[in-house]
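Below sits the subject:

***
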Amino acid sequence: MATCFDGVSHTFSEYLLVPGYSSSDNVPDNVSLKTPLVKYRRGQQPPITINVPLVSAIMQAVSGPKLAVALAQEGGVSFIYGSQTPEDEAAMVREVKTYKAGFVASDSTVTPDMTLQDVLDLKERTHHSTMPVTEDGSPTGKLVGIVTSRDYRPSRDDRSKLVGEFMTPRAQLIVADDQTSLKVANDIIWDNKLNQLPIVDANDHLVALVFRKDYDSHKSNPGELLDAQKRYVVGAGINTRDYADRIPLLVDAGADVLCIDSSEGFSEWQKLTLEWVRKHYGDTVKVGASNVVDAEGFRFLADAGADFVKVGIGGGSICITREQKGIGRGQASALIDVCHARDEYYEQTGVYVPVCSDGGIVYDYHMTLALAMGADFLMLGRYFARFDESPTRRVNVNGSYMKEYWGEGSARARNWARYDLGGKKKLSFVEGVDSYVPYAGPLKENVDNSLLKVRSTMCNCGALDLAELREKAKLTLVSSTSLVEGGAHDVLLKDANQQVSVNFRS
């Protein structure tokens, strides 16, 4: 007969935190969100610690180089998606590792023989008004000019006008060589009253752009996550099929941590992958494994050598695994079970294997709940897909700006290796959907706002770090009526379109 778990499978929305005693020291500015990313032994320091407990999902619609840089600037880690060729993934990792803070590679480059209409179309797609002009149109081509919004007037200029006719030519540009530091570049910008400064190599090929605003942004990121060489930390996704070809390329590119991307991690395929890594790299290459939903699954992956274990099946906003296959578990129940197993494993072995909660985060307060339940850090997909830095297009849907978002198990992604159980290399049926999420703007201001809520709630619980939160947190299950009570109710909410008449009585 089948094994039946006691109790109901619960989600984050079914829980609330009960406040604890808050001292005068419990203010958000005093809260530390540092957390281990990979396993370590009792009495030792974790090889990698992140400054905020957020990592981005291993998804085409989420984790590209631009988001990886932006998240590292905030103290978290992005896992570059693995559903691409090993060479392309390694190139993305290398792009992050070679990125110089404040130095931006152009993704809006034009040629002199393109038209004003081409410029306007590119601006619509990228939302960038500054466009370097290179001979071949590549971001590293020979610089021949630059186009900004001050170089043309869409209302008056002919849309067929060539870029070469209205660009600011190279001879009139102030540039700097590729040995210029960010501080010196900023001085040049201010001394010459520039908004941007092209960086070129000895052959006058474009290397990067430095913007006035990016220098200020760099100075405002004291929690940025850097490796020993002062490069941004970045992760990468791998699968259980081509790891022998993929991992050497990712390691050579500089990936700091890898993660096996799988819909179900309690499998021999994961064990074989981890064994191959340990045989060829020992403990020098850090690899997380995923995904499981119970203590048995955690123990299997921990014993197999996983550097962290990812928890969650079917809880993602675009995941339909539960609907298609009937497997999974409520994210809260799964997380609590696995975190108990992690603590037991630590007591028995002296090895602490961090737990990553993957899925089920709908509201910001769910982040704090997941951390209180024991998660060391959170992997988020939908959350990051909404931001400017995600790789997807911003589109207008019925008058509202949205970002495209699709699952790795969707027909669009065709990431067969994530859901493969052996056999033919194809996606037999979908386990994800193609969708839109509301556009939310830049990553930084959204992450800052979300983490302020986390810090504030931790203060309400009397906790100044994540270990103290887990120790002091008091959780209570809530009824459906409690959920209604927790939001605005029994009032008529104000609407900007409402017409209200005021009756003044004398």
Observations:
- DSSP finds 17 helices and 24 strands in the chain.
- The longest strand covers residues 400-406.
- The two ends are 79 Å apart (CA to CA).
